Amino acid sequence: MGQALKVFPRVYKAMLVEWVCTRSQTDRLSAFTLRHCGCNRDYTPSESATVRVVAKCRPFNEEEQSKSCKRIVKVSGDKIILEAAGKEQSYGFDYCYATDTRSTRVYQETCDSLVQRALLGNNVSILAIGATGSGKTHLLTGTEEDPGIVPNLTSAIYKYINEEQGKKNFFISVSFVEIIDGELTDSLNPHSNEMKIREHPQLGIFVDGLSELVAGSEEELSRLYEQGSRARKMGTSDARSHRKRSNAIFTIRIEQKETSANRVGLRSTITIADVAGSSGESGKDEFEHLSNVIGALKRGGHVPYRDSKVTRLLQHVVSIWLEVKVIEERTIMLFILDNCYQETLRTLQVGQAARSIKNKVKLNLDETESMIQELREEIARIRTKLAKNSDSTKEDVLKMEDLIKDLQIAKSNTWEERKRRSRQFEEDRKMNLANKGILEWVMDTVQKGNKELQERILLLQKEKDQLMVDYKERRRKVDEMKEDLQKRISEYSKLADSGKAGQSETKSRVSAIHEIKEKLKRETEILKDLKKKLKDIHDKQRTEKETAQGSVMVKGNAELRQRIEAEERKRLEMENKAMIADELEKMKLETEHAKAEIQVQVSQGKEYSQEDAMQHEMELAELRGEKAVVSLQMQTLQQEKEVLLRDLNQVYKRHKEELEIQQLQHFQTFRQYRQVFDEQKNVIEQRYRELLEDAVQDAIFLSTRNNELMMENQTLKQGVFLESHCCTLHAWQHPVSIETEH
């Protein structure tokens, strides 16, 4: 990364810019045509844009509902009204949303246009700001029923990519950094290497050492965001403290090139920040640092970006455009309002001040390919000059060496090289997550069943679809026959009441009615058979799906199991409703048949006695009483069902919370064991080093002592040799004197 900090020399051709004096009727912005390397394209020049500020009120939680808390904020148009001690304070914003507003609507009305600008080459940022527990992360993530900002944003990006398929090539990469107490952590690849914030004239402010992973599809981009969010939660031993102090910045980089020969493309960045709220503890939190920056921008003068790593990383987001010297962009700030007066007041004041911030917006051109080509041509030219000219200067050689280094740096930023690094990061992150003991939980996904099982389910679905088509067609015929039967009975009754019908006509009409009734009866039986077949196929399909789900369910995925069980209960409820509706339809049909039969009999002259009428009245009274009892039983069952569902959801929530606590305890225990293991390992290694040092010292001592003994031995040998030599010499010189003495 150290080499990447070097500024590329401008060795390529100058860019020709031709201004076209036209104005749009919508935004009144000037346009110009950019011509580079023979490619003509229309772009929008840089412009200034104010930061868009949005206020969103969160609903009451269960504890606040149980205490019957009073809401202190309300929405009135584009204003938020804060109530306290009988006084009201009003704050204006670009958009204001009440507690029941869905996250999808917030995205569509406030963020979708920014994403479209990002896809056209502008940098954009989305900041979620508010007190701890106000719902920032929930607004960004959302739920399955109401997706948040990030899922909607992801869908919009790949919808645009699919529409431009064949016209452009795209390269999407992401990074995810977490900042806690000034410490940087790579959420996608939690390694232990040092990470530093650096600034580069072309790259702007970035984190050196942060992993960048390639997202080749919408599912992969969503998966990386979910896994990074899960790693943030699972990688801590104190979830409550982590929640108060954790800041996260998720960055999506979009690069695009036309499939034509043009080597100039567009690049843009979408920055999504979740800024931690007030922790209620001593010392400044990130929200306060951000408040100081926004206040300084409004007042003018020195802006304390460097007081916090979060504000340092977001410097390009919250900067008055006249002061910006890095990447300019469009910004939206989402202020989530809590029910605490002090925190809400603080949030509203900061949001009010943020509306005065202006950013400078411009297109970001991706000139990597053009730069590589120009560098290669320049290197080839100098190499040819050096080969042909014998009197080449030293400056030419040094220049070519610098160009080769710049070419290597430029090639490291190509799509192919970054894909290679992304694959390496994928391998590293699995190892790093495993070392932290959270690999299974972070990478938790449902695998597909085997091919044979999937094929059986598909065949059953096709058979079910065909039966459903037949069932609907038969049902349509039955409905038409019922209408025809009712019409004929009505006409026959009117004719009989008028007394104008002859015997032959009456007989023919009665015969036609009986014939339609027989046909209707046969069609009804066929309809019942089709319904039975549909039920059998549905039961088989459910069995196969349960088998598939049971065989591929990942261990520990309680949330997925709960979701599947909830869907199964909902499906069973829908089936029961459909069955009751069919039975009611059947009873209605039988009742209509009976009524038609009675009408025919009456028209033929049948009379009912007073005793029959009284009997029918008594039966009707009994049926009405039974109906009231059944209705009451149904209401009671519905109430019991609601209570059971509420209890079930509460039990699931408690179980989920307890399971998360157990998981965190397990992770903490694992880390403690690992810490003890590391400590014991260090003790053993230290003891080994001490023993090794002692052995080395002993070896040195023994070697020295051995040398000393060898020297002493050599000295003794020399002494013995000299003494022996002297004795021999003396004996040789005085042989007679020795004999005389004897």
Automatic annotation (TrEMBL):
One of its GO terms (biological process) is microtubule-based movement. GO terms for molecular function: ATP binding; microtubule binding; microtubule motor activity. Pfam families: Kinesin. Residues 50-357 form the Kinesin motor domain. Residues 358-392, 443-665 form a coiled coil. ATP binds at residues 130-137. Keywords: ATP-binding, Coiled coil, Cytoplasm, Cytoskeleton, Motor protein, Nucleotide-binding. Belongs to the TRAFAC class myosin-kinesin ATPase superfamily. Kinesin family. This is Kinesin motor domain-containing protein. The lineage of its organism: Eukaryota, Metazoa, Spiralia, Lophotrochozoa, Annelida.
